[in-house]
Amino acid sequence: MCRWLAYSGDEIFLEDLLFKPEHSLVEQSQHATEAKVATNGDGFGVGWYGQQEEPGLYREIMPAWNDCNLRHLARQIKSSHFFAHVRASTGTATSRANCHPFAYENWMGMHNGQVGGYEQLRRPLEAHISDCHYLNRMGTTDSEALFYMLFCLGLEENPVKAICRMVSTVETLQKEKEITAPFRCTMAITDGKRLFSLRHASDSYAPSLYWQKQEGRLVVVSEPLSVDRTGWNKVPESHVLISEGSEVLDIVSIQ
Q1: What is the helix, strand, coil percentage profile of the chain, to 5?
Q2: pLDDT band at residue 251 under the 50/70/90 scheme
Q3: Which phi and psi angles does 95 have, rounded to 5°?
Q4: Under a CB-based contact definition with an 8 Å cutoff, are residues 83 and 103 in contact?
Q5: Which of 50, 52, 106, 159 has the lowest tally of Cβ within 10 angstroms?
Q6: Is the backbone peptide bond immediately before 101 cis, with ω within 30 degrees of 0?
Q7: How far apart are alpha carbons 26 and 18 in whole angstroms?
Q8: Which residues contact 117 (CB under 8 A, 6 or more apart)?
Q9: Beta strand pairing status for 217-221 and 194-201?
Q10: What is the pTM of this model?
Q11: Contact (CB, 8 A) for 137 and 148
Q12: Residue 232 half-sphere exposure toward CB, CA atoms < 13 A
């Protein structure tokens, strides 16, 4: 399972979350404590909003802890809204195109988890991606497929409803194909202003997802960035955390 973080609030340097905390995301890339595997070394990526409407992306196939360019960039880039992701592959190739986050126009998304039986579901899932969005699908992961599916399911009009439809579509297809392996997922989606953070599983083992609000800052993470869990809140299973800036607007059920 991968590890990720989403930040929104006052402008900060990327290194303030990627490197500085005692259990920073880069630390989690080697020593994750709430994932199936402790090491997430199959590539990484960061996506941030700056002076342009579209996010900037930096994705690489080497482990996050072994890329000096990431450390240099994180020391220089400031943003009020950014994503970061360290990858543990669930079977697809280690390639730049398969590294998160994924971006389309002003939208950005990333994912942790797995669609059970994806080999059988890849083609029917991709049927829910419109032609114009499919042209931008460069990789082979279930994560990227889920991201582009959302646009066909109404992401730009109603993100929460689109997320609900995506989950329902995956689980309906699994039932039709008699796939018993679960769909487990945490996912972050943003339009550059609002953030939608999903935690869900078709069984009772949803991947971990936490959020913490401090003055002017909101962080959503796979694992807390500190050993002390004080102030960290779990996103409930089968819920979407909706936020804008540093404010949590709502936490809604998708069932």
Answers
A1: 25, 35, 40
A2: very high
A3: -150, 160
A4: no
A5: 52
A6: yes
A7: 6
A8: 174, 177, 179, 181
A9: unpaired
A10: 0.96
A11: yes
A12: 16
Nearest to 146 by CA among 122, 181, 180: 122
Partners of residue 198 on adjacent β-strands: 187, 240
Instruction: Give the count of beta carbons closer than 10 Å to the beta carbon of residue 40.
Output: 29
CA–CA dist 147, 198 (Å, integer): 12
| Torsion angles phi and psi, residue 58, rounded to 5 | -135, 115
Distance (Å, rounded) from C-alpha 207 to C-alpha 78?
29
d(CA 114, CA 252): 22
Q: Which two tokens stand for residue 153?
A: 């399911």
Contact assessment for residue 92 and residue 139, using Cβ atoms and an 8 Å cutoff: yes
The total number of residues shown for the chain amounts to: 255
What radius of gyration do the chain's Cα atoms show?
17
Type of residue numbered 135: L
- Angle (CA) 118 95 92, round 5°: 20
End-to-end Cα spacing for the chain: 24
**What are the structural domains of the chain?**
3-253 (3.60.20.10)
| Mean pLDDT (the chain, rounded) | 96
The amino acid occupying position 224 is P
* 209 token code pair: 């997802």
Q: Are 251 and 242 in contact (CB under 8 A)?
A: yes
